[in-house]
Write a structure and sequence with these properties.
Layout lengths: L10 H5 L2 E4 L2 E5 H8 L3 H10 L9 E3 L2 H9 L15 E3 L1 H10 L3 H57 L16 H4 L3
Helix pairs in contact: 2-3, 5-6
Length: 184
């Protein structure tokens, strides 16, 4: 194998099959099998033969509700897409461990691409967290400014609603003819 980086799969194809489930970025067994070009059942068999390599933070089975949620969100066309079984999902660590179970050259290259995609997504997320933190800070300042503006507006409206009481007749402004000046 040469040192030149080989991209067997466009990075968008990998990014499109990474989901957030139970607060974890995961990939479905059927999507991984498709990327590795093996049958889902073959991938599952290899995992079951090496189950000690896949603790619950590397891989877990979706609940029926989670699987249905993927279908209802149009992530998966139908429950039949799972082949009659609830799918396994693999975290980044689980995907890395798959490379020790699946020994083909394609599996190794695909795993490298997947891990790089997870790393890139983590970098993007950390960048977005910083931006989100700044936006939240500015949003709070805007909310405080908005609250103060409403308060000032309410005070002005209250003042405008007060009746005007005059103790004496106001003096006219401007020039008056001499005969009118005496009556003031």
């Amino acid at each position: 194998m040469n040192n030149k980086e080989t991209n067997l799969i466009p990075k968008e194809s990998i990014e499109n099959v990474i989901y957030l489930i139970r607060g974890e970025k995961v990939m479905l067994d059927r999507d991984l099998a498709q990327l590795y070009r093996v049958k889902t059942i073959a991938l599952r068999q290899q995992v079951k033969r090496n189950i000690r390599r896949f603790p619950s933070d590397f891989m877990f089975m979706l609940t029926l509700a989670e699987a249905r949620a993927l279908v209802s969100q149009n992530v998966i066309p139908s429950m039949r897409s799972f082949g009659g079984a609830r799918p396994y999902v693999f975290t980044e660590s689980g995907v890395a461990m798959l490379s020790s179970v699946l020994k083909s050259d394609r599996a190794i290259q695909v795993n490298i691409q997947i891990i790089r995609t997870f790393i890139r997504l983590r970098k993007v997320l950390s960048l977005h967290k910083g931006i989100l933190k700044q936006l939240t800070k500015h949003e709070l300042k805007l909310l405080e400014l908005d609250r103060r503006t409403h308060k000032i507006s309410a005070i002005i409206n209250d003042i405008l609603r007060l009746p005007i009481t005059l103790k004496r007749k106001p003096k006219p402004i401007g020039f008056l003819p001499p005969n009118k000046r005496a009556s003031l």
